[in-house]
Amino acid sequence: MTTDAPEEYRRTILEIAEAVAPGWERWRAHIETTTTPVREWMLRELAPQPGQTLLELAAGPGDTGFDAAALTGDGGRLICSDISPAMLDVARRRGAARGVLNVDYRLLDIERIELGDDTVDGVLCRYAYMIAADPAVPFAETRRVLRPGGRVALAVLGAADRNPLFSALGMTLVRAGHMPPPDPDDPGPFSLDDPERVRGLLERAGFADARAEEVAVHFDFRDIDECVTFAADTSGPMALVLQSLSETERGQVAESLEAAFAPFRTGTGYELPGVTVVAVAA
After folding, report:
1. Closest to 128 in 3D by CA, of 113, 115, 146
2. pTM check: above 0.90
């Protein structure tokens, strides 16, 4: 990535987040059901306590943070943040629907967290560090805003070959000429797929007692059309590519995925395996 590329990349990330925010709102319940094991692991390891101040980075619809806020009680506070105004509006609506009162909504960039040093007792971040231009930067920022003894609990995508929903879709779009092959030197969804690398980055950012492991998830769809619609609504850069395709081109993508996902067909649809790398550090 060139010297000027990180700023351009951040603008691209913001544009993508703004574009997929409506889709994340539509699919919120499906996403939360799929990622329940991840959310439960993060909350258990963060172990929020009454009266604490928590920060959720790249909160999306915000359910992980809202669950954590419930554990801090009336004396606690959640800072629910995202880089995208549209995504933060999704979180506001979700927070209102859940009746969450101890929450402040903030526009924050995970690489430039506009909070003072030693501000929060815990940080949650789900599926965002992996797409940072340089993941060492948001890890260092996270360490800076945490009070002594504070914890971070995070999640990122595991290895591509163990997440066929995203890897097969990406390969299909590349082979069809709809998007270029990924540059291995650029950030991407699988850039933090190694638990040991995540642990090492946390330690270099100043965290002690860092631990990373894997959690299995699965994505359930009635049929391939539902799978493609989900991806077109939520899957980052691939979502924008899918949205730009003609009906015929999307049909061809669906045909390719039907062949790729044949091993995962069940009597009621498709059950696609997935792996998430989770980590906690203090």
Report:
1. 113
2. yes
